[in-house]
Design goal:
This protein has helices spanning about 1-25, 60-75, 85-90, 95-100, 100-105, 125-140, 160-170, 200-205, 210-220; strands at about 25-30, 80-85, 110-115, 150-155, 175-180. The chain has about 220 residues and is an alpha/beta fold. It has a 5-stranded parallel beta sheet, with helices on both faces. β4 (about 150-155), α7 (about 160-170) and β5 form a beta-alpha-beta unit.
């Protein structure tokens, strides 16, 4: 009887451990714009190769989220980080299947989409509907792993039309929408509040405090 109980306890422990391991996001796909990743560009006074305008790589939201999830699951996730500003600017006729072939092949367990800032103003309902349609198509492509969790973050520079379209697209694929609209209203969340920049565009990005706030909002949405 003792051996049976011991074996049963060991089996239950293994099953619980295996279940936890299965649920942990082993592969994370970050898809965004310059807030997510931007290479060096001296003419705008940006010299990093990470999320603009964090003061170092480990302080952008991508690395903060990855570090926190690594600590939680006991192993560092494999990550893919893609700058898709070209999708934002040209979403109307964008080749989603072709351009995101590598991201689909990655088969992420967790997809985090952080876009909207570079999208032109959606002046008419038809513009908003088309953007929603394209973001939905993008999310379906990125969710090549049927079990993948989807998180979509609203724009740091809040915009009701864009954010509404992204929220509806997120809901269409069963994702979790994270509203960070309040962050852009706090001047201390901007890079310009932490150090001077020659280029106003860089200064208008989230600094270390803003990046940490974005990371915290995303982490709260990870189940």
């Amino acid at each position: 009887m003792f051996r049976f109980r011991f074996a049963l306890a060991a089996l239950l422990c293994f099953a619980s451990s295996a279940s936890a391991e299965t649920l942990a996001p082993q592969k994370i796909l970050f898809v965004g714009n310059s807030i997510t990743l931007h290479g060096p560009k001296a003419d705008i006074d940006w010299h990093g190769n990470w999320g603009m305008a964090a003061t170092s790589e480990d302080k952008d939201y991508v690395h903060l989220v990855t570090k926190a999830l690594a600590a939680k699951q006991g192993a560092t996730p494999v990550t893919m980080v893609k700058n898709v500003a070209d999708f934002e600017r040209n979403h109307l006729d964008y080749d989603i299947a072709g351009k995101f072939k590598d991201a689909a092949a990655f088969k992420a367990d967790l997809v985090i989409l952080c876009i909207g800032e570079n999208v032109a103003a959606l002046k008419a309902p038809a513009d908003q509907a088309k953007y929603q349609e394209q973001v939905t198509a993008l999310l379906k492509t990125l969710k090549s792993n049927p079990q993948a969790a989807i998180i979509v973050r609203s724009s740091f520079w809040a915009n009701e039309a864009k954010d509404t379209a992204m929220r509806k697209a997120c809901e269409a694929v069963g994702g979790t929408f994270v509203d960070i609209s309040a962050l852009g209203k706090d001047e201390q969340n901007y890079g310009r509040s932490e150090r001077p920049y020659k280029h106003a565009g860089v200064a208008n990005h989230p600094g270390d405090r803003g990046m940490a706030a974005i990371a915290d909002a995303i982490l709260k949405a990870v189940k």
